[in-house]
Amino acid sequence: EVQLLESGGGLVQPGGSLRLSCAASGFTFSSYAMSWVRQAPGKGLEWVSDISGSGGSTYYADSVKGRFTISRDNSKNTLYLQMNSLRAEDTAVYYCAKKNSYYYDSTAYPDYWGQGTLVTVSS
Amino acid sequence: QSVLTQPPSASGTPGQRVTISCSGSSSNIGSNYVYWYQQLPGTAPKLLIYKNNQRPSGVPDRFSGSKSGTSASLAISGLRSEDEADYYCASWDDSLSGPVFGGGTKLTVL
């Protein structure tokens, strides 16, 4: 059974940093691309970032480019999201999701999601 | 403002058939697959439909997806109270070179 467990969320001041983790199990982690998708309170889903199965290729939404860094440790079956220069508009539940493919391309899609971790950016 | 446009709400009575629309453009729905996710209250999204009209194992055949041109639809037949949830469409956008989502539709079972 695929399981994804996010952690690391919390309250942080504007301009601060936070690192999210996502522990994966139930599948061969290194064989699949992974995503971070966020959902602001009462709002819809917004794609944040993707990483290929090897970790060698990364992709970001324009709203987080230059501030967030996605990475993975395939030896630990763990996905990360380093978030710097946080803004109030980054407040959201952050979900990690497994994609159905090793690669980042137009036919890859999230097929399993974690329960999410809440990030609140406020002074 | 979401790239894909969905109605904010939909409703139906038990047993009824309901459809939820998702409108896009030639750079997303018009040239790529459409996916649908169900988000029950307080839970993570769950894949409902992939590649326009394919159901993952375990998803009841009451749920069906279709696509025509730059629009897509999710149909739910034999509506049940447990179908009350938010539904999101998604696709790839060639101009943005990334995934895009609709704003979500809140389905109420009356």
Folded structure, characterized:
The complex is a heterodimer of chains A (123) and B (110). Chain A is an all-beta fold. Chain A contains no helices and 11 strands. The mean pLDDT of chain A is 96. With 110 residues, chain B is mainly beta. The radius of gyration of chain B is 13 Å and the shape is globular. The mean pLDDT of chain B is 96. Classes of the chains: A mainly beta (123), B mainly beta (110). Chain A binds chain B through residues 35, 43-47, 50, 59, 61, 95, 100, 106-107, 109-116, and chain B through 2, 32-33, 35, 37, 43-47, 50-51, 56, 88, 90, 92, 94, 97-104.
Give the key terms.
heterodimer, A: about 120 residues, mainly beta, seven-stranded mixed sheet, four-stranded antiparallel sheet, about 0% helix, globular, B: about 110 residues
Helix content of chain A: under 10%
Low-confidence stretches of chain A at least 5 residues in length (pLDDT < 50)? none
Per DSSP E runs of 2 or more residues, the count of β-strands of chain A stands at: 11
Nearest-angstrom radius of gyration of chain B? Answer: 13 Å
Proportion of residues in extended strands of chain A: over 45%
Can you give the mean pLDDT of chain A? 96
Query: Oligomer, anyone?
Result: heterodimer
Q: Which runs of chain B of at least 5 residues are low in confidence (pLDDT < 50)?
A: none
Which structural class fits the helix and strand makeup of chain B?
Answer: mainly beta
What overall form of chain B do the CA principal axes indicate?
globular
How far apart are the first and last residues' alpha carbons of chain B, in Å? 28 Å
Write the layout of secondary structure elements.
The complex is a heterodimer of chains A (123) and B (110).
Chain A: E1 3-7, E2 10-12, E3 18-25, E4 34-39, E5 45-51, E6 58-60, E7 68-73, E8 78-83, E9 92-99, E10 110-113, E11 117-121
Parallel strand pairs in A: 2-11
Antiparallel strand pairs in A: 1-3, 3-8, 4-5, 4-9, 5-6, 7-8, 9-10, 9-11
Chain B: E1 9-12, E2 18-23, E3 34-39, E4 46-49, E5 63-68, E6 71-76, E7 85-93, E8 98-101, E9 105-109
Parallel strand pairs in B: 1-9
Antiparallel strand pairs in B: 2-6, 3-4, 3-7, 5-6, 7-8, 7-9
